[in-house]
Amino acid sequence: MEPGRLNAITDVEGVGVGHSTLVEGESVRTGVTAIVPHRGNLLEEKVVAAVDLFNAYGKSTGLPQIMFEGVIETPVMLTETLNTWRVADAVLDYHRERLGVSPGSLNPVVGETNGGFLTDNIGRHVGRREVFEAIDAARSQTGRGVVAEGNVGGGTPMTGYGFKGGVGTSSRVGGGFTVGVLVQLNCGSKEDLTVAGVPVGREVRLPEAPPPSPGNSIMMVVATDLAIESRQLWKVAKRAALGLTRTGSYGGNKSGDFTIAFTTGKREPETRSGGDGFLSPVYKATVEATEEAIVNALFKAETMTGFEGHVRHALPLDQVEEVFGRYGRPLQK
Amino acid sequence: MEPGRLNAITDVEGVGVGHSTLVEGESVRTGVTAIVPHRGNLLEEKVVAAVDLFNAYGKSTGLPQIMFEGVIETPVMLTETLNTWRVADAVLDYHRERLGVSPGSLNPVVGETNGGFLTDNIGRHVGRREVFEAIDAARSQTGRGVVAEGNVGGGTPMTGYGFKGGVGTSSRVGGGFTVGVLVQLNCGSKEDLTVAGVPVGREVRLPEAPPPSPGNSIMMVVATDLAIESRQLWKVAKRAALGLTRTGSYGGNKSGDFTIAFTTGKREPETRSGGDGFLSPVYKATVEATEEAIVNALFKAETMTGFEGHVRHALPLDQVEEVFGRYGRPLQK
Amino acid sequence: MEPGRLNAITDVEGVGVGHSTLVEGESVRTGVTAIVPHRGNLLEEKVVAAVDLFNAYGKSTGLPQIMFEGVIETPVMLTETLNTWRVADAVLDYHRERLGVSPGSLNPVVGETNGGFLTDNIGRHVGRREVFEAIDAARSQTGRGVVAEGNVGGGTPMTGYGFKGGVGTSSRVGGGFTVGVLVQLNCGSKEDLTVAGVPVGREVRLPEAPPPSPGNSIMMVVATDLAIESRQLWKVAKRAALGLTRTGSYGGNKSGDFTIAFTTGKREPETRSGGDGFLSPVYKATVEATEEAIVNALFKAETMTGFEGHVRHALPLDQVEEVFGRYGRPLQK
Amino acid sequence: MEPGRLNAITDVEGVGVGHSTLVEGESVRTGVTAIVPHRGNLLEEKVVAAVDLFNAYGKSTGLPQIMFEGVIETPVMLTETLNTWRVADAVLDYHRERLGVSPGSLNPVVGETNGGFLTDNIGRHVGRREVFEAIDAARSQTGRGVVAEGNVGGGTPMTGYGFKGGVGTSSRVGGGFTVGVLVQLNCGSKEDLTVAGVPVGREVRLPEAPPPSPGNSIMMVVATDLAIESRQLWKVAKRAALGLTRTGSYGGNKSGDFTIAFTTGKREPETRSGGDGFLSPVYKATVEATEEAIVNALFKAETMTGFEGHVRHALPLDQVEEVFGRYGRPLQK
User: What gap in Å lies between CA B156 and CA A103, rounded to an integer?
Assistant: First the structure.
């Protein structure tokens, strides 16, 4: 299937992404990313949503209510594990101060992965300022809707397959629909990394064996424009884990593998006959876009030094090109 | 079935409960309650746990990980909706400052109900001080293990069936096991209240029809001492919703009806033959203890005036006694 | 809330119920019940459906596919445990022989409870003839749509709370919707039976303590006419277990407590604003109709003698009337 | 990870597999496969089990009870869709006639995929004789425990990725445990087939584009010897879908992707510290063994002609070898 114009989650019309990245001194390498289905007040104009808990080792907030009500009412925030609750709390502040509403109840959706290898996570440096910056950026995203990838936003300190990980995005366009995926990649072991079927992780050499990270998770956010219901969107969300495993992960026990999906609901399916059969290409698009979003995170992330002098090396792209040649595939990317 | 010595969740050996209650000025009526399965460091000595989402309209944190890992690693905290995330964040502080550990990952379990009728909830007045006080109290609970009920801790501003609600607890002792339940009651409509089968809500008169609350939820915490696995404990947890409905609730759509269960695992079941058949009396104990915990919350709560002058009346016990007489039941309680 | 005209599941327009009852010799006391959402070919005109597994100790067929696809494509059949698979197989025959289609795939929905106390269940006497008869009757139900209750169809050999159980039905009409429930009652212990809050089971005397049944389950079928989606209908289905517990059951471990719900989808909700909030009265209707359907099964069933001379006594209605008097309630039923 | 001695599910000690294959005339190409965790009476000696419903488009019986009770009490049977209920019914006969017990309740576990492309499935040719033969064979499997693959048992008429599919098996041995997987492969499109990362489906040529099958599903059975509980085994079961997707499937909407897992429970995990962390290599073993079981099904199945003259071609292994060469991988298999 073909990617959209930007090959990003923002190919789904109306979706905005904003990052706030915090790199200070030797120990702070963190941030937060906001994804909005539209630029309005979500609490007033909720969108249909769903959640897949493939391996729910993680601290995300807001997921149970999505499972029952089938909607989200705040931006989806992605950040570092120990900042989860401060980010959720600041989303409430955002409503008061930026949107002028004081809801007596609110269901902030915050996903997280553990960046403690490169950042002083117990310091919980992500606060109101960063949350406001990320949501503002997401809601006002202009022009081409390009999404920065790699060491940005919530992905700043993350590790993927022993290499520098972080944020990645991709999209696929099918007959009458678009699917976009954004991931915050922080899982996997070097020897498992597979790119387009090629065992890149085993073939590529690093200066040293990558030291293990304290965390090992991935947050996957799936957006589409199809007018489907939450139960159907849940089945779409379940396919993101399939895209993940195609890059090599087998869902290690402490890998929090969460998928949050929403739809802007702007396009009617071309056909609804045959039950949910029309969803099959949407599943395929989700698998492909998730796989590529993960690869994009690895391709865009750069080597980073952080907390306690820890170093995480970027995936060496020159070696990848050489490996692809040996495996009968010219690298186009 | 018979209650334990205290008719409280603390009849389960090792379990401690602590409240921090915050009543200040005219607008602050809030607090937080901590329940600990034992007084040690839970992060080091996790206990088996399970969750039932009967109607997951709510913001509780920490539940997905319990579903997958089958353990809890922090105290169970109950508070007011908008304080959820600050409480979760403060639980991490507690680990650093009281327990001397700086975990790079932690799964705080916080349940909530919406107390905005009687307290200025958007002010989020529950913070580190209250969280520390509640956990300290729970861990050091001495003597008879009596649990304060009614307008205390997380239950301070809550409403139950149009009357003043809050915290209630009860227990049942079976052959070789104890079940204890603690609830934070904030759900139901006056006309639905049923006590021991008697339609108390319809019969009792208040000075005025109770104004609706913004929230409508209940948190139920079930503790036992049986050495059972998480899957079995999940089936126990599911029975709490049955106890709830016997007091009249039918699980209104915005009623977040959550049950969190844990076991200290100190007693072997007398028999394990016949699969899970030995659980049936544990289910019955859970239904009964939940039903009575809810009634106890109503019987112990006192009339409260709070935010914006709102008043919530206590259940008039003299009228209850009279109604019981008419329905052929002398009131023993 | 008020019942519909018939106080039966057939108050939901289009719904038909048919029984085939098999009482032969001393050992055969069995049958099958069919419930159809409409009289057409369901495989061509599927209806939205949902399932709640409150306690899935049971052999029902067809439920997983309903959970994922959100529809049913065959009548809902209720029968005796060991006949489950023959009934499912015969539903396929029905399609070939009565509907003239030979589907290469079909998802028959069959619920069951264990009637081995009064019938030779291992003989599996329910076959094609009975299945055809029940479905034909359901599809051609004319006139007043009255549903026979008690010792009929799948409910023929069943036990409820130690008394003779079987089929019961009831309905409730709300603002713009109807909910109908039909149960096949086979669960509960005498001492737990509660009718309208009165502990009837403890008060009523039988000639002998009721011997235990081998089985202990209930199938609950909920029908509505509201145009809602499967996720919403699932939340409706979850309320049936609440109605069950109001009659005294606490969901014993071997009690298979299943709910299958479907909607004819003929009426638009009067409002959809506020998310799923409009469902609350539908929940209440479901709780009430389920509670009454169970009571109706007990009130209509008659004493039966069957397999190996086992006797199951009907609930003695004269005693019930007297008990109600003592508990301050004139019996209207 | 390394396969076991047989590279089959029977590498898990005690596990037996038996097939009954029915190839008659031009239209009957069907059968049934039985898998037993041990050769005793399972109803007396149940084993711990779990189920993953990745995409529950299917008619399998017995799954809900496994989810709640965490055990299986019959062999796991795999057959053709429309034979599901006759097979379940015959499993009961087997208990009466071979095991000498007449259980009043039994939970037969039958998985299915749709073989209507090559067999007259509406004829439902699999009956008592075949069920008895398969279970007898599984229970008496002697000597080396070799498992026939390809066009055998329940897999006889099945299709995989547009090629001839059927039964495949594989195993992996880890530190202190064995995982074995057996699949009945009937899903996927030719263009999606991926073997060890190589896009074999797109590269291989067939005499004609493979006509679509009416069905599109896979049954995956996972066996292990680790003494773990049902909740943990469920997480193991979830990994089978990851192995599936590595061969190219993205879980099309009508693909019933079911996993049934059981454990003989004969080996204690080497360590239980760190919660469920010890499961990670078990997950990896499951992903790998599932992926290879699917490939083995394709490599062993032979071209078949059946119902209405339909032909399904075997995967052309010579072409596969050539393709592997071009993609930098000598084929060892």
Answer: 20
CA distance C12 to chain D (A): 28
Neighbours of chain A (3+ CB pairs under 8 A): B, C, D
The helix (run of H) or strand (run of E) holding residue A236 is helix A230-238
> Looking at the predicted complex, does its ipTM rise above 0.90?
yes
Instruction: Give the whole-angstrom CA distance, residue A280 versus residue B48.
Output: 39
> Chain C contacts of D108, Cβ < 8 Å?
59, 85
Res B332: pLDDT: 58
B275 near B60, Cβ under 8 Å? no
Instruction: Out of C60, C171, C217, C230, pick the active-site residue.
Output: C217
Distances (CA, A) of A87 to A56, A62, A94, A154, C32: 20, 12, 10, 11, 56
The residue type found at B10 is T
Distance CA D52, CA D235 (A): 8
Question: Which chain C residues are within 8 Å of A276, Cβ to Cβ?
Answer: 69-70
Radius of gyration, alpha carbons of chain A = 19
Please report, for residues B19, C22, C241, D104, the alpha-carbon distance to residue C252 in angstroms, rounded to integers and kept in the order given.
34, 29, 12, 18
B120 is catalytic: no
pLDDT reading at A273 higher than 80 = no
State the pTM of this model: 0.97
Record the tokens describing residue B30, joined without a space: 């809030």
In angstroms, the separation between the Cα of residue A229 and the nearest Cα of chain C is 8
Per CB-CB distance under 8 Å, the chain A contacts of D331 are none
What CA–CA distance (Å, rounded) separates D45 from A178?
52
Q: What pLDDT score does B333 carry?
A: 47
B217 carries an active-site annotation: yes
Taking CA A214 as the corner, what is the angle to CA A210 and CA A216, rounded to the nearest 5 degrees? 85
**How does pLDDT run across B16-36, given as a tens digit for each residue?**
999 999 999 999 999 999 999
Q: From chain D, which residues contact A within 8 Å (Cβ)? A: 54-55, 194, 196-199, 235, 238-239, 241-242, 245-246, 250-254, 275-280, 283-284, 286-287, 326-329
Residues of chain D with pLDDT under 70: 142-143, 331-333
Are β-strands D217-226 and D257-267 bridged in parallel, bridged antiparallel, or unpaired? parallel
